[in-house]
Write a structure and sequence with these properties.
34% of the residues lie in helices and 15% in strands. By secondary structure, the protein is α/β, with parallel strands linked by helices. It has two domains: 162 residues, HUPs (Rossmann fold), CATH 3.40.50.620; 92 residues, Glutamyl-tRNA Synthetase, Domain 3 (Glutamyl-tRNA Synthetase, domain 3). The strands form three sheets. It has a five-stranded parallel beta sheet. Strands 4-5-8 form a three-stranded antiparallel beta sheet. The chain binds glutamic acid (GLU).
């Protein structure tokens, strides 16, 4: 049950590039349970900011899968593809702060000039265009200057996390020359606009959190609490993903999918639950106990 007294707002933010697989159901379920355990609201947001990756109709398939599992958004579903003006305004603010610059480097040039960082496992942008485009080059992307220093945050599942964003990641792209907005900007703006207080998502996004918080801080936005839940990996140890062919969740058998997602989160099965609704009620109670949550407290 949602409670009007709880300020908690959670969200599930799938990219509509195909149907949900078990890994995405784990993120959906964890975020739904945490919202319900707090008596809060749960929103679904379609992250179709990456036009080329978006599969027409996948949004409706995802919403139908979620509904079959007993999870529906407490508010209208927001589509990032309809929010260009909002992202434009955020970029304009950052530009006015002197933090945005055009970058003319190709992927190849960045790969050739910057080694992979030992801690982040990423190739930090070496800052080639920080002081201006190289002669004869046009912009390929717009980047934001990342402040020097280590950014730390408390992850509710994993504990304290720290990253030196400027060194380990470098200045990130917010918009490409073809007009595509970066997920990193869209997610920060949308979470703030939707009043999201709590992000619960898969641990594959843990490494994005520090840069998102730094960006949010720069824009003066409130920072949601975060919890990154374990990923499901295949037999080769790779994260389940649409790219490596993870099968769509069979929502004809919602209890099977819910139990699988639940046990992947490290909980014992709930054998007494005979419907998705009963399962979700029992799981909410167990989630509340596990995280010492008092209903209506955020
Ligand atoms: N759209 C992202 C994904 O499907 C999730 C973003 C988020 O939860 O912040 O991986």
């Amino acid at each position: 049950m949602t409670s009007p007294a709880s300020p908690y707002v959670g969200r599930f933010a799938p990219s509509p590039s195909g149907p949900l697989h078990l890994g995405s159901v784990v993120a959906a379920l964890a975020s739904w349970l945490d919202a319900r355990a707090h008596g809060g609201r749960w929103l679904v947001r379609m992250e179709d900011v990456d036009g080329p990756r978006t599969v027409p109709g996948a949004d409706q398939v995802i919403l139908a899968q979620l509904a079959a599992l007993g999870m529906t958004s407490d508010d209208d579903v927001i589509y990032q593809s309809s929010r260009h003006a909002v992202y434009e305004a955020a970029l304009a603010r950052l530009t006015a702060m002197g933090l945005i610059y055009p970058c003319g480097c190709t992927r190849r040039e960045i790969a050739d000039s910057a080694p992979i960082h030992a801690v982040s496992g990423e190739r930090p942008y070496p800052g080639t265009c920080r002081t201006g485009l190289q002669p004869g080059r046009g912009p390929r992307a717009w980047r934001v200057r990342m402040p020097a220093g280590v950014h730390c945050f408390e992850d509710r599942w994993l504990g304290r996390q720290c990253q030196d964003v400027a060194r380990e990641v470098g200045d990130i792209v917010l918009r490409r020359a073809d007009g595509q907005w970066a997920y990193q900007l869209a997610v920060v703006i949308d979470d703030a606009d939707q009043g999201v207080t709590d992000i619960v998502r898969g641990a594959d996004l843990l490494s994005s959190t520090a840069r998102q918080q730094v960006l949010g801080q720069t824009l003066g936005l409130p920072l949601p609490r975060v919890m990154h839940v374990p990923l499901i990996v295949d037999t080769d140890g790779r994260k389940l993903s649409k790219q490596n062919g993870a099968p769509a969740v069979d929502t004809q058998a919602p209890l099977v999918a819910l139990q699988a997602a639940w046990t992947a989160l490290g909980f014992a099965p709930l054998p007494d639950a005979s419907t998705a609704a009963a399962f979700l009620t029992q799981a909410t109670d167990a989630w509340r106990l596990r995280w010492h949550i008092h209903p209506c407290s955020a």
